[in-house]
Amino acid sequence: MFEKSLTDLIRGIRANKKNEQKYIAACLQEIHQEIKSNDPDIKAQAVSKLTYLQMIGYDMSWASFHVVEVMSSPKYSQKLTGYLAATQSFRQDTDVLMLTTNLLKKDLASGNHLEVGIALNGLSHIVTPDLARDLCQDLVSMLSHSRPYVRKKVVLVLYKLFLKFPEALRLSFPRLKERLDDSDPSVVCAVVNVICELARKNPKNYLSLAPQLFKLLNTSSNNWMLIKIIKLFGALTPLEPRLAKKLLPPITQQIQTTSAMSLLYECIHTVIIGEMLTSGGNSDALAAMCVSKLKIFLEDPDQNLKYVGLLALSKILPTYPKLVAENRDIILKCIDDHDISIRLRALDLVVGMVNKKNLTDIVKRLMSHLLPSNNNSESSTLPSTLLEPAYRADIINRIIFICSQNSYSNIVNFEWYIAVLVDLTYVAGVDVGELLTTQIMDVGVRVKSVRQYSVKAMQRLLSDSSLLENCQFPESNSEVLYAAAWITGEFCSYLETPTDAIGYFVQPGVTKLPHNVQAVYIQSILKVYAYWANSLTYNWDEDSKQELLRFTEMIKDKISTFCSSTDLEVQERAYNAREIFSIIHQNLSTTHETTFDVENNIYSSTNKSPSIISELYPLFFSYELNPVAPKAQKKVPVPEGLDLDAWINEPLPESENSESEEEEESYGYGYTQKFGGSGDLIFSSGSGTAIGRRRDRKSSKKGYNSEEDEETKEKRRRERNERIKNDPFYISSTGNDLSKHSKSDGLSKRVTEEIDVDSIPVVRLTMDEFIFKTDKKTSKKSKASKKEKRHSPPPVPPVIYTDIGEMPENATLSDEEKDSTKTGNNKPIWNSIPSQSSGILDVDFSGVSNVDLSTPLGADEKFPSMAVYLAPEEVRRREEERVRRRFTERRIKQTQESTSRVKKSKSEKPKSKASLEITPNTKNTENKGEQSSKSKKVSKKKRTEETEDRKKKGKKDKGKKPKKKNSISDNATLENHDNVVVDEAASIKTLVDSDDIQVLYTLSLGSSTEVKNEPPAMIADFTVRNKCSHKHPLSKLTFTFESTSDIQFDKGLIEIGELQHDEQKSVTIEFKVLGIVGAGLTVSGNIAYEIQSDEETKTNADIPIRFELPMAVFMLNIPKITPEEFKSCVTKTADFPFTGSTSIRLNASINLIEQSFQNDVTRLISMATGTHIVEQVQGAITMYGKSVQGYQVAGLAKLTVEKNIMLVENEIPGSAQNTSVRIELKCTDQAFVDGLIREIDYLFKEL
Amino acid sequence: MIKSVLIFNNHGKPRITKFYQQIDIGTQQALLQEIYSLVSKRPETACNFLEGSQMLGGKDTRVIYRHYATLYFVFVVDESESELGILDLIQVFVESLDRCFENVCELDLIFHFDEVHHILSEVISGGMVLETNISEIVSAYSEANKLKKRSGAIATISGSGAGAVARDLGANFANTVTSTLQNTLQTTVSATFPTFRRNTGFNT
C-alpha cells in the first residue's frame, strides 16, 4: 500500500539532487523487497522503477527473473512494463531467456494485435539463437497476419532473427519476398528495409529481386522507401552492370524532379557508388549534373546540406578526383568552417586533393589550426573542440599523411618539411613523438640533399633544454630527440662543431629521457667522437692530442652517469662506450713511451696519430646508409638451382590454417600496431627501411604474380584438402574455405559467373561485349580490392629529389614496371579518425552474409520444430503424474497388506472386504468420498495410519452424508441433482485423522458472483474434533498456513486454544488464489497442539497438512442453461480457444450399458469439473459451467461400449464389454482446462 | 540500421536511452556522457552531424542529433540509413510525441519514460524504421493506451497528476521546433518530405 510509484521515485530523485545516490540506494532496497511481492501490481511497479533506474546507470540484471514474471502477466499494462524492462536489460547471456520461449509463443498467438506488437518488439531486442530457432516458424506464419500492424513488425523482427539464426533466412525468404506486394505501404517499406540491410552484406543473393524493386522505384511516391530502394540498388549495380543502364533513366529523372533534398542526395550517392558513371552511355552529362547538384549542396547556407555534400564528394574522390577538384575553393573554405564536423569532412577531401603546388599552402592552413591564434576575434569564433587533443592529433596525422603520401611525391622542398616537423614538435601539444621521430629519420635517411639542413635543425632540438625538462610529459614530444640524436650521430660529417654535439649528449638531465633515447645518445656519442677524433688526425699535433685527451677524459666521466641506468640496454651500451673511451684514453696518455718504439721501427714521424683512433672511425662509417629502391628485392636474380616454391620442410597438415593466418598477420606487424593506420601507410610507402622492403616483396609477389600465384596456391590447397580428407583429426571447413577464398578475391570471376544473368530483365546486349566488359572490370577490381585489403602500398613513381635507391647490379627500372605503377594509382582514402576497425555498436553479420539464397530449398530444410522443449506446466504435469502413479502403486500394496492384516484381526473384515469387492455401483459411491480425501493425503507423512483412516472415513461418509448415498441410488432424474452436484464438489473432506485429532474441511468460493481481474477468494471451513483415545484435552491448538506465490492468506495463523475430549470446534480461513488456476494448486500448513496426558507430561504434536484445490471449487453455482443456449454459446463465439480431452477406459465387469451406469459416469464427470449437465442423451452428455474468474467451460462426454469378442473368447470370460468415455472440454483458459482434465483422469483412475 | 536512440537534456541527464545492440550498462553510460560532452559544445548554427566520438568507433557510424529547447535527440546510425532521412525521422518522432502528449515538454518525458519508449517502438523496431506516418504512430499509441487503461493500469504511473504538474513547469519543446530549428531546417525538412507540411498542423 505504501510503496513508491514510479512517479514518486522520479519526484524523489529530483527532490534529492544533493544526495541522489543515497536516495536511490534506499529506493533500491525497497525495490528488492517489492519485487518479491505476491501482488502482481507491486511487482510490476518495482520492475518499472528498476527500468527507470537502469536508464540512469543502475544495473538491473539481478531482477531478470522477476522481469519474466511480469512479462507473463495477463494484464496488458503489466505485460508492457515487463517487456520494456526486458528490452532494456536483457543480454544474450541472460539465463532466464530460455524461460521466455513459451511465453513469447503465447503472446505472439494472442488475439489482441497490440499484445502481439509488444511481444514482437520485445523479441526484436532479446532474440537469441535458441529463441530464433524456436520461434521462426511462428513468425513466418505471421507474415500473413490479417493486420498490417502485425505484419510490418514481423517483417522487421525477422531480420533480427536471421542475424541469430541464419538458416531461417533461406527458409523464410520466399515468404518474405511475397510481402513486397503487400497491400499496406508500411509493410512493403519494412520489407525493403530488411532486404536493404541483407543486401549490404551479400548483395548477390538479392539480384533476383531487381525487377520487383525496379517496379517499386517507378511507382512509389513514398520518399522513405524510395531512399531505401535507391540505396539498395547502389549495392546491387556493382554486381550487375546492365542494371546500371536500366536504372539510369529513373534515377536521372528523380534527380531532376524531386524536391526532397534527401532523395536527391541518395540518388547522387547511388550514382557514384553504383559505378553508374562508368557504365552509362552519356556518363559525362550525368557526371556534370551530379556535380552541379552537389554544388547546390555545398553552397547552401544550411550546414547539414554542406556536410552531406562533402560526404558525397569524399565518395567520389577515389574514382573521379577531377570532379572533386572542381570544387576545390569551396572545400578549402570549409577547412576553416567554424563547425568542426564540416571541417573534418573537408579535411578528408583535402587529403585527396593535395598536389605539389598547393601542399605548402594547405599545410600552412592546417598548422594554423594548431596554433593558438593571436587574433582574438578569430579565436572567439572557434569552438573549444579545436584545441582538444584528439583534434590536434588528427590534424597532425593528416599533415604528415599528406606530406608523406606516395613517397613524399608532393614535397618540393624537403628543408621546408623538416622545418614543419620541427615546428610540429613544439606546437603539437599532444603525444605524436613517435610519429615525428620516424618521419624525421625517414626523410633524413632517404633524402641526401636535406641531411645537412636536418643535422642543423636537430642541433637546435638537442640544445633545447625545455624538451629535456618536460621529457616526462608525453605531450612535449621529447621522443623526437631520438631522431635528433640518431641523425646527428649518423650524419655527423655535417656538424660544424662536433664537440658541441657531444656536449648536448652528455648535458645534465639527459638521464631523465626515455631509455631508448638514452641508448641512442650513447651510440651517437661514439659516432660523433669517432668522426671528430678521426678529423683531428688529419693534422695531428701535440695540441690536438692534448685536446683529444682532455675531451676523452671528460666524456669518460660524463658517460659514467649512464652506467648506473636502470635500463639494461642503456647500461650495457654505457659500459661498452666507457670501456672504449678508457682504452683510447690509456692509449693516448701512453703514446709517449710506446711511440718511441713504434716510431723507431715503423713510423718515421712523431706526428702520427695513434692507430686506435683511425680504427675507430671505420667501425661506424665504412658504409654509407642508403635507401633501397622499391623494386630492388624483386630484381635480385634467383640463384641458379634455387627453387623458391619447393618446401624446405613438408608442412604438417594442421599448418594449413596457420599459413593463411600468417599471411593476414603480416599486414599488421611492426609499425601498424604502433601507429594505427597512418603509420602503416607511411611506412609501407617507404623503401628505405627493412620493413618497407619486406612488405614490398610480399605485395609485389601477390600483386604482380597473382596469376601464377593463384594457380600454385590452388594446387597446394587441393593437395592439402586431399590430405585432410583422410585425417580424422581435422575438421573439414571446405565451405568456409571457399567463401573465404572468393571473398579475398573481391568480386572474383567466379561470383560474376554464378549470377543468373538471364533472370534480370534488362536491355539486351550482345553477350560478347558483356563478357569482355566484366572480365576487364573484375580482373582490375580484384587486383585493386586485394591491394586495399592488404594495406599494401600503392606502387609509386620514384621519389623526386632522391635517387631511386639502391638496385641490384645490372638492374634498372624497366618501362613496363613504370606502367604498372601508374595503373594502380588509386590513392588510399584517408580514414579521418584512427578508430577501431569495428564500433562498439556493430552487429555480427557473419552468419547472414554467408547464406546463399540462389539454390532452391532442399527437402531436409525445414523449420525446426518445437518438440525440444515442453511448457513448464507440461513438465510439472508429467512430473506429478509420475509421482502420483508411484504413490498409487504403493498404496495398492499397502492396501493389500492391510487387508491381510485386517483379515487376521478379523474384527473389521466385512467392511474392508466390501471396500475392495464392491460392485461398480457401490464402488462409485464409496469412492466419491474416498477419492478426494485420498488425494489430499498425497504428501501426508503418516501413511501407516492410512488403513485406519479409511475405515473411519467409510464410516463417516455413511454417517454424515446419508443423503449422498440416497441421491446416487435413486438418481432417476439427474436434473434434480445439478445443484447438489456442485455442492458436493465442495463437500466435507478429511484433512487429518489421527489418534488424537480429526480435522475435516470444506472449501467454498468467497464470492458467489463472477469477479474478473481479481484473484479469486476461497473460504476453507475446518472442523476440529478432539478424539484423543485417552480423553486428554488438547491445548494450544493452532493452525498455520503458508502464503505462497500462488496462494495468499490474509491471516495465516489461527489459534483455537483448548479442546476438551470429543469437543468440536469450527474455524474459517480465507485466502486468495493469485497464481494461475490450474492443476496442482495446493494449500499447505501445519496443525500444532499439545496433549496434556497428566499433570507433568506434555506431548507436542505438529502435523503438516496439505490439500489441493480442485478445479470444481472454482465453479460458480449458476443457473442451468438450456441446450439451445448451450448450442448457441459454443457455436457462436470463438470464446473457447483452449481445449483438453481425455479418454478413459472403464473395465466394467457386468453389463453396464444401462442408464444408471451412464448416470454414474456423468455424475463423476460433472463433479470433477463442477459443471452442469446441459443435456443428456444415450451415450453422450453435454456440460456447461462458469468459474469465478469468468472462465467458461463447455464439455462433451461420449460413452462407448463395445463388445470385445477377443477378450470374451480368450481371456476373462464375463467381462464382455470394453467401455470407454471420451471427454472433451473447451475453455477460455488453458491452465484451467488442463486442471479439469487432470482431475477427471484422476477421478476415474481411482475407480 | 539505427544503433541507438538517446534523449538527454542540456545537462546531460538521460531521458531515454535505447540501444538496439546489447551492450553493458557501463558502456551505455560512458557513451552517453561522451556524446553529451561533444554535442553540448556545438553551437546552434552548427550542422546536425556529430563527429569525433572516440568510443563509438566503427566505419561509417554516424551520430545525428537535433536540439529542441532543453532536449537533445541523438540517433546513432550506420551507413545504410540516409543522413537527411534520419534528421526527418527525429522530427517525426518529436511530432508524434507532441501529439501523444499534447504539447509535449521535457517533464512529460521524465515522468512517462515508459510511454516514450512505447511511442519509440512504434517508430523504430529492432533498429529499423517501422513507421513514418505520424497518424499511424499516434493511433497505435492511443489504441494501446485505451487497452492499458482497460486492463487496469497502475493508477499512479499513468495518473495525470504528474502530467498536470509537468505542463505547468515545463516549456513545450516541440513548439520551439517552429521558432528555432524548424526555421533553419525548413529547407531540409519541408523540402525533403512534402508530406510533413500537411502533418505539421500542430505548429500553428
UniProtKB/TrEMBL annotation, chain A:
Location(s), subcellular: Cytoplasmic vesicle, Clathrin-coated vesicle membrane
Keyword Secreted assigned: no
Matching InterPro entries: AP3_complex_dsu, AP3D_dom_metazoa, ARM-like, ARM-type_fold, Clathrin/coatomer_adapt-like_N
Bias type Basic residues, positions: 692-701, 778-792, 952-966
Annotated stretches, region: Disordered: 652-671, 686-750, 775-972
Family: Belongs to the adaptor complexes large subunit family.
Name of the protein: AP-3 complex subunit delta
Natural source organism: Gigaspora margarita
UniProtKB/TrEMBL annotation, chain B:
Protein name: Adaptor-related protein complex 3 sigma 1 subunit-like protein
Annotated keywords: Cytoplasmic vesicle, Golgi apparatus, Membrane, Protein transport, Transport
Family: Belongs to the adaptor complexes small subunit family.
GO annotation (BP), single: Golgi to vacuole transport
Keyword Plastid attached: no
CDD domains recorded: AP3_sigma
Domain of life: Eukaryota
Main location group: membrane
Localization per Swiss-Prot or TrEMBL: Cytoplasmic vesicle membrane; Golgi apparatus
One annotated Gene Ontology cellular component of this protein: AP-3 adaptor complex
Pfam families, per database record: Clat_adaptor_s (PF01217)
Residue ranges constituting the AP complex mu/sigma subunit domain according to the UniProt record: 1-146
Membrane topology, from the record: Peripheral membrane protein
